[in-house]
C-alpha cells in the first residue's frame, strides 16, 4: 500500500472508502450539506484526520463513520472497510431496511390498473345503458 499524503480531502476519502461511486458525487454531497462533522456541514476540501467522526447521507442510507486510517485511492470493498468504523445506530439501519422493503418500483401489479380492451368495451356498453 502506498503512503498517504499528510493532507487528504474529505471528498477523496469518501470516494476511496466507497461511500460514493464517483468523487464528484462525494464533492456534490459536501456542497449540499450532506456531509457533517459535529453537526456542521463540511466543504469538499476539508482535510481528514484519523479519529474524525462524520455524518454522511448518501442516496442509499445515512452513515456515521469514524476515520481509523487514511486512504487516498480507491481499493476493493474488503480493503476499504478497514479504513473506517461504522458507528450508525442499529435503529437507523432497521429504518433503512424497512424503507427498502416498501420501495415502490413504479411498476403496476399484475391485473391491476388500466382495463383491458375487453373490459373497456364492456364498460362502454354499461355506460351507454346507464345513459338510456
Structure keywords:
132 residues, 36% helix, five-stranded antiparallel beta sheet, alpha+beta, elongated
Chart the SSEs and their pairings.
Blueprint: H1 10-16, H2 23-31, E1 35-37, E2 40-41, E3 53-57, E4 62-67, H3 77-80, E5 84-86, H4 90-101, H5 117-131
Antiparallel strand pairs: 1-2, 1-3, 3-4, 4-5
Helix pairs in contact: 1-2
Give an account of the 3D structure:
Helix content is 36%, strand content 14%. By secondary structure, it is of the alpha+beta class. The protein has a domain of 91 residues: RNA-binding S4 domain (Structural Genomics Hypothetical 15.5 Kd Protein In mrcA-pckA Intergenic Region, Chain A, Roll), CATH 3.10.290. The radius of gyration is 24 Å and the shape is elongated.
Task: Describe the structure concisely for a colleague.
With 132 residues, this protein is an alpha+beta fold.
Characterize the overall form: elongated
* Strand percentage: 5-15%
Low-confidence region ranges: none
The number of helical runs is 5
- The oligomerization state is single chain
The CATH superfamily label of the domain at 1-91 reads RNA-binding S4 domain
User: Cα distance, first to last residue?
Assistant: 84 Å
- What is the N-to-C order of secondary-structure elements (H for helix, E for strand)? HHEEEEHEHH
CATH class label of the domain at 1-91: Alpha Beta
Query: How are the strands of the largest sheet arranged?
Result: 2-1-3-4-5
Radius of gyration (CA) equals 24 Å
The CATH topology of the domain at 1-91 is given as Structural Genomics Hypothetical 15.5 Kd Protein In mrcA-pckA Intergenic Region, Chain A
Helix-strand makeup class = alpha+beta
| Overall mean confidence score, pLDDT | 83
User: What composes the largest sheet?
Assistant: 5 strands, antiparallel
Question: So, CATH architecture of the domain at 1-91?
Answer: Roll
Secondary structure: helix percent: 25-40%
Work out the number of β strands: 5
Amino acid at each position: 500500500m502506498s503512503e498517504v499524503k499528510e493532507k487528504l480531502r474529505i471528498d477523496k476519502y469518501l470516494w476511496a472508502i466507497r461511500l460514493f461511486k464517483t468523487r464528484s458525487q462525494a464533492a456534490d454531497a459536501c456542497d449540499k450539506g450532506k456531509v457533517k462533522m459535529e453537526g456542521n456541514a463540511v466543504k469538499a476540501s476539508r482535510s481528514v484526520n484519523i479519529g474524525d467522526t462524520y455524518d454522511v447521507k448518501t442516496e442509499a442510507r445515512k452513515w456515521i463513520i469514524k476515520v481509523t486510517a487514511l486512504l487516498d485511492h480507491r481499493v476493493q470493498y474488503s480493503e476499504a472497510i478497514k479504513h473506517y468504523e461504522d458507528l450508525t445506530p442499529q435503529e437507523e439501519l432497521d429504518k433503512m431496511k424497512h424503507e427498502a422493503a416498501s420501495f415502490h418500483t413504479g411498476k403496476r401489479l399484475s391485473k391491476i390498473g388500466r382495463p383491458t380492451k375487453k373490459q373497456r368495451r364492456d364498460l362502454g356498453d354499461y355506460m351507454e345503458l346507464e345513459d338510456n
